[in-house]
Amino acid sequence: MLAFNFSGFKYECGCDEAGRGCLAGPVVAAAVILPENFRCDLLNDSKQLSEKQRDLLRVIIEKEALAWSVAEVDNHEIDTINILNASILAMHKAINKLKIKPEYIIVDGNRFKPYEEIPHKTIVKGDSKYQSIAAASVLAKTHRDELMYRLHNQFPQYDWKQNKAYPTKKHKAAIREFGVTDYHRLTFKSD
After folding, report:
1. For residue 88, what are the contacts with CB-CB under 8 A and spacing of at least 6?
2. Calpha distance 124→121 (Å, rounded)
3. Which residues contact residue 70 at a Cβ distance below 8 angstroms, ignoring those fewer than 6 apart?
4. Can you give the pLDDT at residue 47?
């Protein structure tokens, strides 16, 4: 069972992102504030869950969270400011969209920049330790996957429906054969 709270504050916000290692598409971040009585045994790091489990959890999280939001930074901005800064910017944008201002922010990973005057803590593997970060990882992943499914319909040759723009052999072969789209990150090595 994942821990509920790190800070002791009622409005603790968990943040995570999806799509950092992809060759195309945006990086998507989510911010989630869960109610104190939230319990869900299935909830875990999104990478440990099946697509079906993530889709089920997304409905539960979006219904039961006190506040949640998702934000993205597109591939052009990623190429301009780099993927780390883009990931942090996406998290800041997601926090900014929350209908409740968090009292404390916990972030998956080891890099974050202060958001306003709100205290924060980075937690390595936080998505497998704290419910709100796991919930954010599920929302970021499901929202990004949904976007990549839509883009797949425009560019089926890259197989984004399957690979979500990660650097698979098929995706890299398609780049060599067809070149890049306006959604590809030009600063990422695809060979």
Report:
1. 111, 112, 113
2. 10
3. 28, 29, 30, 94, 97, 139, 140, 143
4. 87
84 exposure class (CB count in 10 Å sphere: 0-12, 13-18, 19+): middle
Q: CA-to-CA distance for 169 and 28, rounded, in angstroms?
A: 23
Token look-up 């992102």 returns 17
Q: How does pLDDT run across 17-57, given as a tens digit for each residue?
A: 999 999 999 999 999 999 998 989 999 888 899 999 999 99
Least-confidence region, from 8-12, 42-46, 135-139: 42-46
Would the CA dihedral through 137, 142, 148, 152 be positive or negative?
A: positive
Q: What tokens does 164 get?
A: 């979500």
Q: What is the DSSP letter of 118?
A: B
The predicted pLDDT at position 189 comes to 75
What structural domains and CATH numbers belong to the chain?
12-144 (3.30.420.10)
How many helices (H) and strands (E) the chain has is answered by: 6, 5
